[in-house]
Design goal:
The complex is a heterodimer of chains A (145) and B (165). With 145 residues, chain A is an all-alpha fold. In chain A, 76% of the residues lie in helices and 0% in strands. The two termini of chain A are 57 Å apart. Chain B is mainly α. Chain B is globular and about 55 Å long. Classes of the chains: A mainly alpha (145), B mainly alpha (165).
């Protein structure tokens, strides 16, 4: 007969119907003959039933649907991004201006910095354009829950 | 690709499941609500679901769990501290009465397991996910699920036996 420690975790697989036929038969044969494993099986069966019967959330379906339809949830990120981008642009403009009029920096370094800023701005515009196109063709936007 | 209406209808059904999972991982109602709301934002932002990722519910629960783990990492208080605080905080009379009942005791003992055991018990025994779905949510090989789940069940069973005497 197979040993108890070889059965062990297979008891859970057996309880959940997740074993192959071979292993299922192995467990069936063993627990028919072994009182200890039979008791362990009954213990975990009781735990599964008891946990399944608990009430672990206080959120009702209505509260959840309300959260889903709350436009502030959906727009708060948009507003956050808008404020972030606006702040970044103002700061960037100031830094570029301060850098451009700083006579202690060589022209070559200034040009390299300018290329960097222009490149970043170009990337930003391309992402923005993509987002705009995606929003225009968004088939989900009018879906009510 | 499922229709958008289908996706949102499914989402409407599974929110409380996400909240239950988050509550068990985080042990705190406010944090759980934050995690579920963050997960909701992620789903609404992406607005698409790739069926090759598995069942929609498992995908959503994966996002919820990831948000929970992020929150815990950020706040550096994985598992014991919050849970013990929560269990110790059940001072109102109604909660005390509930804890006298078997379900209340079970819930309390569940909260005292470690987070990895709690989450696997919630996913399988409370929410009824298959082993494959549990593996997806936890990002572990499916072979790991059975042993981890069994250890969690045995640990909870051992704790509950103290009340049989």
């Amino acid at each position: 007969m197979i040993k108890c420690d070889q059965i062990d975790e297979l008891l859970s697989g057996y309880l959940d119907g997740e074993l192959t036929q071979d292993k299922r038969q192995l467990v069936e044969t063993h627990i028919d003959q072994c009182e200890l494993c039979q008791a362990a099986y009954e213990d975990i069966e009781k735990i599964r039933l008891s946990v399944g019967a608990l009430s672990l959330t206080e959120m009702t379906n209505e509260e959840w649907k309300k959260m889903m339809n709350d436009t502030s949830v959906q727009t708060s990120r948009g507003f956050g991004w808008l404020a972030f981008i606006a702040g970044m642009l103002v700061l960037l403009g100031y830094v570029v201006y301060a850098y451009a009029i700083d006579e202690s920096v060589e022209l070559g370094v200034k040009l390299a910095a300018l290329a960097l800023v222009v490149g970043l701005f170009g990337l930003f515009l391309s992402v923005l354009r993509q987002r705009f196109i995606a929003r225009k063709t968004d088939k989900y936007k009018d879906v009510e829950i | 690709m499922p229709k958008p209406e289908d996706m949102l209808n499914q989402l409407a059904q599974i929110g409380p499941s996400g909240h239950a999972l988050a509550l068990q991982i985080l042990g705190n109602r406010e944090d759980a609500a934050d995690a579920v709301q963050d997960a909701l934002c992620t789903v609404l932002d992406r607005r698409s679901f790739d069926p090759s990722r598995g069942e929609f519910r498992a995908w959503f629960l994966t996002i919820v769990r990831n948000r929970c783990v992020d929150l815990l990492r950020r706040r550096s208080r994985w598992c014991s501290e919050t849970v013990e605080a929560m269990v110790a905080d059940t001072t109102d009379p109604l909660a005390a009465v509930a804890l006298d009942e078997i379900a209340g005791i079970l819930q309390k003992e569940l909260m005292l397991l470690d987070a990895a055991q709690r989450e696997i018990l919630v996913l399988r025994d409370y929410l009824g996910l298959s082993y494959g779905e549990v593996a997806t949510v936890l990002s572990v090989p499916s072979g790991t699920v059975m042993s981890r789940l069994h250890r969690a069940r045995m640990a909870l069973s051992l704790r509950m036996k103290r009340y049989d005497e």
